[in-house]
Specification:
A: mainly alpha, 2 domains, about 80% helix, B: mainly alpha, Four Helix Bundle (Hemerythrin (Met), subunit A), elongated
Chain lengths: ~110, ~210
C-alpha cells in the first residue's frame, strides 16, 4: 500500500500544546483572575482556548489535516449548525430572563402585601 | 456517440468507488458528526437553562476544578497513547501497538474511576437531581437554580457513557490485536477506533470548558 509508511505528525508537540493550553485555561478560570478580567473576557478566552484545543485534536490526532479537504468540510457542519442553534436560542434566552425578572418582581409585590 | 459508448462500458465494469477502509472511516466520521450534534444540543440546552435561571451557583464553588483538570490531562495522555498505538501498527510493530492500546484502556478506566469518585463526592456534598449544596467548597453560602444538578449529571453522564463504550471498543480491538489480526498493511480498524477515542477527548475538552470553567 502506498501509504504504509506515511509521515507522522509530531504528536508529542501537540501533547505539550494541549497541556499548556489546559493549564492556561485553569489559570484564567481562577476566581481571582475571573473577577479581574470580567465575565465576557474570561468567556472569550476560555472558549477560544477550548476551540483551539479541539482543533489540534481534530487536525492532528484525527488526521483531518492530512485527509482530503472534503472530509474537513463534512466535519465542520456540526459546528456551523451548533452556531445556528445558539443564535436560534438567543431570543428565547432573553425572553426567559425577562420572564424570570417579571416573576421575581411580582413575587416581591405579593409578599409586601 | 462516443460518450454513450464509454458510459455503457463503464456501467459494465462498475466498481464501488469507496474502498472498505475509506468507507469505514467515512462511516465513523458520519457517526461522530451526528454525535457531535447531540453534545452540541446538550451544551446549548445547558446554556439556555443557565441563562434563563434567575440565579446560577458558580461552578467553581461546587465542582472540584483541580480533579477535573487532572482528568482532562489524563484523556489527553490517552489520546497520545492511542496515536502511538496506530503509529506502531503502521510500522508493523504488533507488540508495541498492544502495549499502547493497553495504556489507552488504562487511561480510560482511571478516567471513569475518577468520575465515579467525583460523582460520589458531589452527591454526598448535596448536589443531586433536585438539590444543590448549601455551602460551597470555600465554605461560603451558595444558592442558585436546582437545575445545576440535572444539567451537570446529564452532560457528564452522557460523556462518561461514551468513555465506557470507548473502553469496550478498545478492549475488542486489543483482543483482535493480540491475536495478530492487524499488520502494517491491514490496520484501518485501529485508525477508526482512534477517531472515536480522540472524539471523546475532544468532547471532554468542550465539556470541561463549558460546564466546569465558565
Amino acid at each position: 500500500m502506498e501509504h504504509a509508511h506515511k509521515e507522522h505528525p509530531k504528536y508529542m508537540r501537540i501533547f505539550w500544546i494541549l497541556l499548556i493550553l489546559t493549564i492556561l485555561e485553569v489559570v484564567v478560570a481562577l476566581p481571582l483572575l475571573k473577577s479581574a478580567l470580567g465575565q465576557t473576557v474570561t468567556a472569550i478566552l476560555l472558549i477560544g482556548m477550548a476551540c483551539s484545543k479541539a482543533a489540534y485534536v481534530a487536525l492532528y490526532f484525527m488526521h483531518l489535516k492530512f485527509e482530503q479537504r472534503t472530509l474537513m468540510i463534512i466535519a465542520l457542519t456540526p459546528f456551523i449548525i451548533c452556531v445556528f442553534l445558539v443564535f436560534m436560542l438567543l431570543p428565547d434566552l432573553m425572553d426567559d430572563a425577562r420572564h424570570e425578572g417579571a416573576k421575581a418582581e411580582s413575587q416581591a409585590v405579593d409578599t409586601s402585601h | 456517440m462516443e460518450e454513450t459508448t464509454t458510459l455503457d462500458h463503464s456501467a459494465d465494469v462498475y466498481e464501488p468507488s469507496l474502498t472498505p477502509d475509506a468507507l469505514g472511516k467515512l462511516g465513523m466520521w458520519l457517526f461522530l458528526i451526528s454525535d457531535a450534534m447531540s453534545f452540541g444540543a446538550l451544551l446549548a440546552a445547558y446554556g439556555a437553562v443557565r441563562a434563563g435561571a434567575a440565579e446560577w451557583a458558580p461552578p467553581a464553588e461546587i465542582l472540584g476544578i483541580n480533579l477535573t483538570a487532572g482528568m482532562t490531562f489524563l484523556l489527553i495522555c490517552s489520546s497520545v497513547t492511542m496515536v502511538k498505538a496506530l503509529e506502531a501498527i503502521q510500522n508493523g510493530n504488533q507488540q508495541r501497538m498492544c502495549t499502547f492500546l493497553g495504556l489507552t484502556i488504562l487511561g480510560g478506566l482511571i478516567f471513569l474511576g475518577l468520575q465515579a469518585y467525583e460523582w460520589t463526592a458531589l452527591i454526598k456534598h448535596g448536589l443531586t437531581l433536585t438539590t444543590i449544596p448549601h455551602h460551597g467548597l470555600s465554605g461560603a453560602e451558595i444558592s442558585g437554580s436546582v437545575l445545576f444538578g440535572p444539567t451537570f449529571y446529564t452532560i457528564t453522564g452522557f460523556h462518561g457513557a461514551h468513555v465506557t463504550g470507548g473502553v469496550i471498543y478498545l478492549i475488542v480491538i486489543l483482543i483482535k490485536g493480540l491475536r495478530g489480526t492487524y499488520t502494517a498493511e491491514y490496520n484501518h480498524k485501529v485508525e477508526i477506533l482512534g477517531l472515536y477515542w480522540h472524539f471523546v477527548d475532544l468532547i471532554w475538552i468542550m465539556v470541561f470548558t463549558f460546564v466546569y470553567l465558565l
